[in-house]
Amino acid sequence: MCGESSPLGFRFCGACGAELGRGAGGEALPEERRVVTVLFADLVGFTARAERLDPEEVRAILTPYYGRLRSEIEAFGGTVEKFIGDAVMAVFGAPVAHGDDPERAVRAALAIRDAVAEMNKRDPELELQVRTAVNTGEALVSRAGTNEGEGMVAGDVVNTASRLQQAAPVDGILVGEETHRSTQSLIEYEEAEPVAAKGKRDPLRVWRAVSAPFQPGERDVKGGPMVGREHELVFLHEVWRRVLSERRPHLVTIFGPAGVGKTRLASELGALAAEEGARIIVGRSIPYGRHTPYAAFAQQVKQLSGVFDSDPPEEAVAKLERAVTGLVGGADEAASHLAMLVGLSQAGEVADRQILFFSARQLVDAIARERPTVLLFEDIHWADSGMLDLLELLASRVQGVPLLLLTLARPDLLETRPGWGGGLPAYTALPLDPLADADARELAVLLLGEDEESSAYAAQLVEISEGNPLFIEELAASLAERATLVEELPTNIRGVVSARLDMLPAAERGILLDASVVGRVFWRGALAEMTADQGRLSGHLDSLEARDLIRRESPSRIQSDQQFVFKHRIIRDVAYATLPRPSRRERHAAAARFLEHATGEMTDTATALAHHWREAGEGERAVHHLLAAAEHAGRGWAKQDAVALYREALTLVPADETAKRREIGRLQALAATALYHLPDAERIGRETQAEPG
């Protein structure tokens, strides 16, 4: 695969012609397990109303209604799975995850509510009313069938969304518990009466979505102490002071994956610069919704001019003209060009984009000359190419003023713009790594509290999050709500990682899914057992390593084979959770065959072999290796391990094989008895470890 993006529904890449959605071995995964968000919207009372209308009148109403709903859903990255009568079902997070799909779905629901109100306002005779529900959960997703009516998503999440939609108030939006948990810091909610849904033992907790106080992509920067970024902040502050003293513009890009703390670090620098008299103006590139070209710069121009999105076009242009005239002088032409550039005016035309860019340069030069300025551009990995061109032009052409162009980006930016910042007179790239263990633990303790129980959980948060501050916060919030850490990752964490995996070329993604079955550590030979495309396997592994998803390890535990490790445990866990059970079984069997061939059933790999054969559904072969592992543990006087292994073997032996069960039970009893021959302190400790659960 070439890595180019293709529209949904395309079977072949428009750039290289390769078939889309195929795994490493050329075999398409027909289904995957995914966390998705389902949106149901249904007109109220329209069925009865349609009985009194002519079919052509019904179509005249429903056609624009369907078109508007599709437009709103797709604007937020959703996929319309089907129209059912006067209802619509849409899916967010499939076939591609975005990392914030619950938020997108709720925003789409709010947009649908407003769109229906707007349609009624334009034509009062429509009298349309709609009930909407949004629900998040795991589903089985067909990657092959994504056309309407093909049943792309199956699972309880769909049925529950339908039940919630039926219980929603007229022109209201109900969301389920997982959707609320994932979006409560971004959407304004009111808790509603629990819904008694058919097929559910207990009433479902639900919330009514009221509004979205934050713009898409915007996040509430928490005001607690910043941890582990002192050196980066000192470095950025020094860059800013050089900008002030030398009156020389500087472009800085803070690079880092989602949740690593880019926005928080920029906010801290902005606060320091503001204390020193700087003007801070923020613009943000957004991943979805309707927006103009140069959206981030347009937001900054509007802030400077006092323009609101709700202003009538004439008033917005008038405000812009007054602001530009005050800054640039008698510059009617500059104001006119800026209005075109940022989408405030549709009138007029210029022969060259550089004419519009020159007006932007004039404005930025003027505001920085008037007062030291930080222009903060968030999420430029989502910016259009024109916005990136404008940024590089400002960085190269504006001179002699105290201006810091501070940009935040995920590493994805370098895939679309490999030469970003190259050749500029003053450019700095600052990579932001995950927190060190000590800093991650400090943050976890600050979020959880310092009592003994919380401190014990802090260590788990550090291990699972692997230094990502957002993941630590999400895990801490999940722990606060549920009073315990659960095995499944919070939806927001899984969504962020899934979105990153979905951006991979299909072959590389398929290899990563295969590798997840082998474990956190895996070998090239194991992957070769799972793919027919062995000729390109090494190249794909090199690419995955370059993308910082896996790392090559040396020495390898298997002679003459390359050993790799997932960079983060979470990447492996999310990849593994994507595979449906039949696919897992096939791959576990392949991993077991590889280990048996490569290690000759050595005793120190017996537990791994037992795990793979058990997950492959081969209980008898798993028992063979469990008994070998138990015997090895017993010889080494790890009797508590031996007891646990014999117990596990017993669960896999059929009830009718009484002789075998009796023999394993005898061995288990011998190992358990041997525990009492250990010194008291050691025995008690091992008995405690051996307790089930």
Coarse shape? globular
Residues in helices, as a percent range: 40-55%
Poorly predicted regions: 1-26, 145-149, 680-693
User: Cα distance, first to last residue?
Assistant: 45 Å
Question: Could you give a short account of the major beta sheet?
Answer: 8 strands, mixed
The residue-averaged pLDDT reads: 86
Counting DSSP H or I runs of 4 or more residues, the number of helices is 27
Radius of gyration, whole Å: 29 Å
Structural class: alpha/beta
Strand tally is 16
Percent strand equals 5-15%
Topology summary:
Layout: E1 31-43, H1 46-50, H2 55-75, E2 79-84, E3 87-92, H3 101-122, E4 130-142, E5 153-154, H4 156-167, E6 173-175, H5 177-183, E7 188-191, E8 207-211, H6 230-246, E9 250-255, H7 262-275, E10 279-284, H8 295-305, H9 313-328, H10 332-341, H11 353-370, E11 373-378, H12 385-397, E12 403-409, H13 413-416, E13 427-431, H14 437-448, H15 452-465, H16 469-482, H17 491-502, H18 506-518, E14 521-523, H19 524-528, H20 537-546, E15 550-553, E16 563-566, H21 569-578, H22 581-599, H23 606-615, H24 619-635, H25 639-652, H26 658-674, H27 680-690
Parallel strand pairs: 4-6, 9-12, 9-13, 10-11, 11-12
Antiparallel strand pairs: 1-3, 1-4, 2-3, 4-5, 6-8, 7-8, 14-16, 15-16
